[in-house]
């Protein structure tokens, strides 16, 4: 091991923080017995070049300051502790882990059985630990410098009642927009280009709602079938803009490119709302890979079955549920939200499966700490907060039930207008409610009609063209047997 200067460092802030004279590393893990920081010279390194034990831990945070480390440094963690899935413990120091607070992530997973903490195909499934190293195929976290010239960028703060929100996918929109320079298509820079902005302005759009741009994973099962997770609802990094949409590189350049996009959109009077997925992660169920949270502290970051913590509570349909009943996991979500507002200058969030975020042992709770923290926060309480007000668990459909400060995707508006248009009887009264601001949902709880985000179709289920062309979905190309998206939609019966 190469000698390296080190100091004890600080337990806050969490993550890797460039302080001008070195980098502070801080990782929360309540149940770990030891943590090693792994430094890599480049992405071609199949093994860490330096491994440094983090001997200091304060308030369940392992921390270390390295005066010789600079922005651009690649790193990961190896976390030791019991491998005891029957008791919810899945530590495996053979596996390199991403920092849950990574601000940038370089590279993509090169899938192999080594990415799983257990012996794939073994007699006891996930109960037998896999001791093979996986650093060769894992992405790496990147230390960044937050400095950026915002050129006087100011918050727009347009009222929701005056907002026209355009949901788009960074890659899909810019690939197909002929106004975007060809070399910038598919990227943040393309969305921030003059051609894209002029097109959005011509539509009267006042805000773009970006489908997930948090760093996300293409599952091994999809890769094996020659597919990808196109929409991006499979997050692995809640602070890192996905490098797949970067035209400038993945060694931190993606962060500045994202900031430049926001700055350009703001200059044109267009706000930026992020579709964020905090309800689950890309690590899946008990047979999923060990990439970050599971290996850092499985019990803390995930909700487990109380009577059998080998298995995960799943209110999301993805195999796991992020544990917002844990103080540090909840802190991570709030730190992420504030980071995107304060450092990345976004204007609001659309929360995927938001009912899951408010679940406690008794179900969806309007008094959940998730709401309470946001409501009292001087930063987050002042941005646009939009809920997808449902999940797949019992009692998860909560349209009209979110508290003040929150707008909602109004699924009842969608369903009523579709049903009326295709000729269902007895829908006039409900359509009148929907077109007049859904007062049955929003008039009596302190909110106004603009709490209803009215839409007819979105990324789930049907494209707008398919919606007016078919009775049933025709998404055959994605290989999901038309089981993707919202399967309760009523399509418009317009022939063909």
Question: How is this structure best described in words?
Answer:
The chain has 496 residues and is an alpha/beta fold. It is 21% helix and 19% strand. The protein is built from 13 helices and 24 strands. The strands form 7 sheets. The chain has a 7-stranded parallel β-sheet with strand order 12-13-16-19-22-23-24. Helix 10 crosses helix 11. The chain starts with 14 loop residues before the first strand and ends in a 29-residue tail after the last helix. Residues 487-496 have low confidence and may be disordered.
Assembly context of the chains: single chain
Shape: globular
Provide the low-confidence segments as ranges.
Answer: 487-496
Q: Helix segment count?
A: 13
| Rg estimate, integer Å | 23 Å
Mean pLDDT: 93
Strand count, sense and closure of the main sheet?
Answer: 7 strands, parallel
Give the helix level as a range of percent: 10-25%
Strand order of the largest sheet: 12-13-16-19-22-23-24
Beta-strand residue fraction: 15-25%
CA(first)-CA(last) distance: 68 Å
* Content-based structural category: alpha/beta
Number of E-state strands: 24
């Amino acid at each position: 091991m190469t000698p390296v200067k080190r100091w004890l460092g600080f337990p806050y802030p969490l993550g890797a923080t460039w302080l001008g004279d070195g980098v502070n590393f801080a990782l929360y893990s309540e149940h770990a017995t030891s943590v090693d920081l792994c430094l890599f010279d480049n992405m071609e390194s199949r093994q860490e070049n330096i491994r440094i034990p983090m001997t200091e831990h304060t308030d369940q945070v392992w921390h270390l300051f390295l005066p010789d480390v600079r922005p651009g440094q690649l790193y990961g963690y190896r976390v030791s502790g019991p491998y005891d899935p029957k008791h919810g413990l899945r530590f495996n120091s053979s596996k390199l882990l991403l920092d849950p607070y990574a601000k940038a992530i370089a590279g993509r997973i090169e899938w192999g059985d080594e990415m799983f903490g257990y012996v794939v195909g073994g007699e006891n499934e996930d109960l037998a630990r896999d001791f093979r190293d996986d650093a060769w195929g894992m992405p790496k976290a990147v230390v960044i410098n937050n400095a950026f010239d915002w050129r006087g960028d100011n918050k727009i703060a347009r009222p929701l009642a005056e907002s026209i929100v355009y949901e788009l996918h960074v890659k899909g929109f810019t690939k197909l927009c002929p106004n975007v320079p060809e070399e910038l298509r598919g990227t943040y820079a393309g969305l921030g280009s003059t051609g894209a902005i002029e097109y959005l302005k011509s539509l009267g759009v006042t805000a773009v709602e970006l489908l997930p741009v948090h760093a996300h994973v293409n599952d091994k099962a999809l890769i094996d079938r020659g597919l990808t997770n196109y929409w991006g609802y499979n997050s692995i990094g809640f602070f890192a803009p996905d490098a797949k949409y970067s035209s400038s590189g993945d060694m931190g350049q993606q962060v500045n490119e994202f900031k430049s996009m926001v700055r350009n959109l703001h200059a044109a009077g267009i706000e930026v709302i992020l579709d964020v997925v905090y309800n689950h992660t890309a690590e899946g169920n008990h047979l999923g890979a060990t990439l970050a949270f599971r290996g850092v502290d499985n019990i803390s970051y995930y909700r487990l079955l109380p009577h059998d913590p080998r298995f995960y509570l799943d209110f999301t349909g993805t195999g796991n549920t992020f544990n917002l009943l844990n103080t540090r996991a909840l802190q991570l979500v709030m730190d992420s939200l504030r980071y995107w507002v304060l450092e990345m200058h976004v204007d609001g969030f659309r929360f995927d499966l938001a009912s899951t975020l408010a679940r406690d042992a008794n179900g969806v709770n309007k008094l959940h700490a998730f709401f309470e923290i946001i409501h009292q926060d001087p930063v987050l309480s002042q941005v646009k907060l939009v809920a997808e007000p449902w999940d797949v668990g019992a009692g998860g459909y909560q349209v009209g039930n979110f508290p003040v400060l929150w707008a909602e995707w109004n699924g009842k508006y969608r369903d009523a207008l579709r049903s009326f248009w295709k000729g269902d009887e007895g829908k006039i009264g409900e359509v009148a409610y929907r077109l007049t601001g859904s007062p049955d949902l929003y008039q009596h709880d302190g909110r106004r009609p603009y709490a209803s985000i009215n839409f007819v179709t979105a990324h789930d289920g049907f494209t707008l063209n398919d919606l007016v062309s078919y009775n049933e979905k025709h998404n055959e190309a994605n290989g999901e047997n038309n089981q993707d998206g919202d399967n309760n939609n009523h399509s418009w019966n317009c022939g063909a």
